[in-house]
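Input record, target 12 of the design panel.
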């Protein structure tokens, strides 16, 4: 679904997920970065400003029991899904800022999915498509 000439991946993990979608007969349709979700993110002045979030993958598939599913998926390194554990203060601040913005995006995505029959999921290298 979407523009098949404009499939865009930013990591090998995303590429593997897209290959999975192409090669799995249970996947009915999928798209890459086609859904845009508005959210607010921190601004340089200390407030918040409007922004747009485009999750990596939307897919519709049928489970083995025949259930039709719709998932909106973000593919991220696991370290960006948790608060920083860095002992370096500068690194810790930077990593925590990334984590905070990710949480804002993911909350907006969960709210966007509500009532649409879509499940929002974050997949990391600890998860696997199979």
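The sequence produced for target 12 reads:
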């Amino acid at each position: 679904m979407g523009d098949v000439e404009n499939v865009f991946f930013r990591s090998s993990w995303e590429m593997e997920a897209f290959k999975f979608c192409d090669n799995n007969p249970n996947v009915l349709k999928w798209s890459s970065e086609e859904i845009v979700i508005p959210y607010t993110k921190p601004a340089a002045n200390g407030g918040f400003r409007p922004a747009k979030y485009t999750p990596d993958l939307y897919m519709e598939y049928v489970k083995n029991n025949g259930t039709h599913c719709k998932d909106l998926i973000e593919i991220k390194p696991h370290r960006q899904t948790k608060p920083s554990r860095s002992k370096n203060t500068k690194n810790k601040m930077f990593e925590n800022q990334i984590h905070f913005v990710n949480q804002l995006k993911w909350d907006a995505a969960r709210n966007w999915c509500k009532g649409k029959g879509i499940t929002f999921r974050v997949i990391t290298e600890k998860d696997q498509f199979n």
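The chain has one domain: 12-123.
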